[in-house]
Each structure stands twice: as C-alpha cells, then as structure tokens.
Amino acid sequence: MRYSDDIIEEVRMKNDIVDVVSQYVKLNRRGSTYFGLCPFHNEKTPSFSVTPSKQMYYCFGCGAGGNVFNFVMEYENYTFGEALQHLADRAGVQLPKIEYSGEAKRKAERRAVLLEINRLAARYFYYQLRRETGKQAYAYLTGRGLSEETIKKFGLGYSDKYSDDLYKFLKSKNYSDDLLRDSGLFNVDERRGMYDKFWNRVIFPIMDVNGRVIGFGGRVMGDGKPKYLNSPETTIFDKSRNLYGLNVARTTRKNYLILCEGYMDVISMHQAGFTNAVASLGTALTSGHASLLKRYTQEVLLLYDSDEAGVKAALRAIPILREAGLTSRVVNLRPHKDPDEFIKALGAEEFEKRLEQATDSFMFRVHMAERDFSMEDPQGQNRFFERCAQMLLELSDELERNLYIEAIVKDYRSSGITADNLKRRVGALA
Ligand SMILES: [Zn+2]
After folding, report:
1. What is the reported pLDDT for 98?
2. Cα-to-centroid distance, 38 and ligand 1 (Å)
3. Distance from residue 83's CA to the centre of ligand 1 (Å)
4. pLDDT confidence of residue 209
5. pLDDT at position 200, please?
6. What distance in angstroms lies between residue 126's CA and the mean position of ligand 1's atoms?
7. Is 298:327 a contact under the CB 8 Å cutoff?
C-alpha cells in the first residue's frame, strides 16, 4: 500500500501534534515546549515532550519519539496505513483509493478469504444447534438461563459428533486444504489427514471490534477434555489484541467497561442488561488488551471470580491497566462465585449496586497485602504499613498519594496508624 508523499504531508500538516497528543496525554506548556507523563512508559515526573515548532515528540525517559504518525501508531497499535486513515478522517482529508502492491494485495485477499471461511463456519455451527442433533446443546444453553434472543445475538452454535462434517461442508465450497489449514478450524495428522478441531461442543463465535468472526471457543458437552477449547492464533485471530464482547460493549453509553473472565460471564451479563462487559480470550490480560480498552474508555471494572485465582488475576491486571493510562476498580461478588451465579441469585439491581461499590484498585491491593502479615501482632502490623509505604511511593502525584494515605488511615485507624507516620515512612523510602 503506497500513498503519495504529497497526501501524507497534507495529512501531517492538518493534524497539529499538540492537538493530537493532547487527546491522550495531559500536556503543560513550559516555554516553547509542552510536557506530560509519557504514555509509553510508567513514570512519576513528566519527561515526555512535544515541540510544536518541529511537530515532533520525544521522551527523555524511554527514548520514544517521532512525528504525529508515529505517535498514533504507537499509541493505538495502528499500522501506518491505519494511522494515516485515522488522521485523515480527523482532519477531513479524503484519501485517494489506491492500488495495492502485489504482495500486500495477496495478503489482504487471503485475510478476506479466511474471514469468509470463519463466517461460513459460524453459520454452519449456528444451523447445527437448531437441528435434531443439536438438541442437547440447545438444552444446555437454555438450562444455563440463556434466552433465544441471547443465543441469536451472540450467534451461538454447536459442532456435532462427527469429526469431519465441517471439513466436508467447506470442501464443498471449494476451499483449498492450504487455506482451511490456516483457518485454525482443523487439526492435521499424517494418519487421519485433516479433521474438525471442534466436535460435540457448544460453539461461541469470537468477533473482532467490527463484528467479524475471527475465531471460535467451544465448550465440550459432557465430560470430554479439555472443557474449553479455543481456535489457535491465526492470521486473523490475535488473542492478545482482541476481547470477547467488545464489538457490542464499545457502543455502550456507560463510561466504564467491565472486564470479566470468560464467554459465559460476558453473555449472562449482556443478557441482564450489562452490555459493557468484555473478556479476554483464554489468556491473561496483556498490554495489547489494555491499549485496546483505552481506545474506548478511561475506566475498567475488574470482575474476576471470587476465588484465589480470581484475586491473583486482578492483582496482575491492575498494573497493566494503570500502565496503559486506565483507572480500575475491583468488584466484589462474594459470597457468590461469578457474575452468572450472582445475577441468578440476587438479580440485576443488586449486581448494579456491587458495580457501584467496586473497590478502588489501589485500596484493593492494600487490602490483599494485609493477608501477607499477621495483623494481630505489632511486628506484623509494622511490616504491613511498610508495604503500604512502598505502594504509596509508586504514586507520582502528591495529591493522589495524600488521598490514599487518608484512605489507609481511615481503614486501619484501629492499628493506631496516622497520616504523619505514613508520610514519614514514604519520605524515608524515597
Ligand atoms: Zn517514555
């Protein structure tokens, strides 16, 4: 893909770098240069500079730098073409339709065919769910409380007990084995040749933000292993850059998104009216997910299972979200295990209340750290407050730090801790 230098220059000139960067980073003017906290590394004092006269940015901390295109590419995870399109739209510049080069054209075509194969497979699974052989799977879904409307909305399906019927179906549409192999829908072994990856499973099509099917998740019927199986990563399916449900959640009017563990969580929450729920796809949260979330919101509510694994996952996610510039809170569903169970037991209204009461993620970390110390004896308490001081030191903003000092004092007043004492501890560590 190649645009003329003239059009690239026009787009660059019509997008003032200070304006563009200001949409993402709070900048303060100092002389002829603007400074702010670098969005590309974690820092406490601003070393990220933008120079209007040069239309360039540079970070003295991590060395990130470049022009307005580089900034948008890095921040939004865009390719150059996507950044150009984004900035052209922003400035109202019409890009000319252009011819792809041979290689790029082949790649784009292959992606288009893989998307088509996935779409056909989704329709095939959807149809199987409604046949006689899909009865058990359909009963499983309705048994879990899903309505017909929800099943339709998420395009849920069923892969039946034969291990080659999807293969036969797609072969009848004249796709080559080479393409089918790349679709991630089939296993290949020397003895059996190619056969369906998913069989006897309830199927959850996975869509990208634009609603295109890019992969599948399958839950086995009965006791087969593994219980959940996902498509492998393919040319069109990058697990670390896609979130289940985001195609719907991105249009929410709520000013936060809810991050939960799996498809069933997302689906039951959407059904209960919480259409701003998303989930990562069988992987822990990555920085790619975080920057994807950042495109659509400022705040994320973490809604992981109420067990130890869920707590661990939340503690792991918090710094990743923070690094991407997102604030986060943690939702407590106890004594219930997950959103599905909670909503069934207590209803959507109570659930909404839990969302409102979500704990600030910093205080969540403090409360979880408490568990590492024996709070009954003075030594344990002392070491716990030392840990609090270490965490407070991570906060660069003085006001923010003082607010958390007050919050900790409020929660642990019975231990005799005072704001002055905590401040002194932080000062000593710094
Ligand atoms: Zn930096």
Report:
1. 65
2. 5
3. 20
4. 85
5. 93
6. 47
7. yes
Q: Tell me, in angstroms, the distance from the centre of ligand 1 to residue 25's CA.
A: 12
Q: 58 CA to middle of ligand 1, Å?
A: 8
C-alpha closest to that of 315 among 383, 370, 249:
370
Ligand 1 midpoint to CA 36 (Å): 10
Mean pLDDT for each 10-residue chunk of the chain (430 residues)? 83 94 92 92 89 94 93 84 92 80 81 95 97 95 95 95 91 94 93 91 93 94 88 92 91 87 93 95 88 89 93 95 94 94 94 96 96 92 95 92 96 92 94
CA of 413 to the centre of ligand 1 (A): 38
Provide the CB-side half-sphere exposure for 61 (13 A, CA): 15
**How does pLDDT run across 218-277, given as a tens digit for each residue?**
999 988 888 999 999 999 999 988 999 998 898 777 889 999 998 899 999 999 999 999
Q: Residue 302 Cα, ligand 1 centroid: separation in angstroms?
A: 27
Res 294: pLDDT: 87
Tokens 């009963």 -> residue: 139
CA distance 227 to 52: 55
pLDDT given at position 3:
83
CA of 17 to the centre of ligand 1 (A): 17
Ligand 1 center from residue 63 Cα (angstroms): 6
Using CA atoms, how far apart are residues 21 and 307, in angstroms rounded to an integer? 40
What pLDDT, on a 0 to 100 scale, did the predictor assign at position 102? Answer: 77
Which of 92, 80, 109, 112 is CA-nearest to residue 2? 80
Count CB-CB contacts under 10 A for residue 320. Answer: 18
Dist. CA 193 → ligand 1 center (Å): 50
Instruction: State in Å: Cα 396 to ligand 1 middle.
Output: 15
Write down how long the chain is: 430
Q: Which long-range contacts (CB under 8 A, 24 or more apart) does 205-209 make?
A: 205/118, 205/122, 205/125, 205/154, 205/155, 205/156, 205/157, 206/230, 206/231, 206/237, 206/242, 206/244, 206/281, 207/247, 208/236, 208/242, 208/247, 209/242, 209/246, 209/247, 209/250, 209/292
Distance 286 CA to ligand 1 centre (A): 19
Cα separation, 331 vs 368, in Å, equals 14
Environment of ion ligand 1 (residues, CB < 5 A): 38, 40-41, 59, 61-62, 64
Place of tokens 């998104």: 257
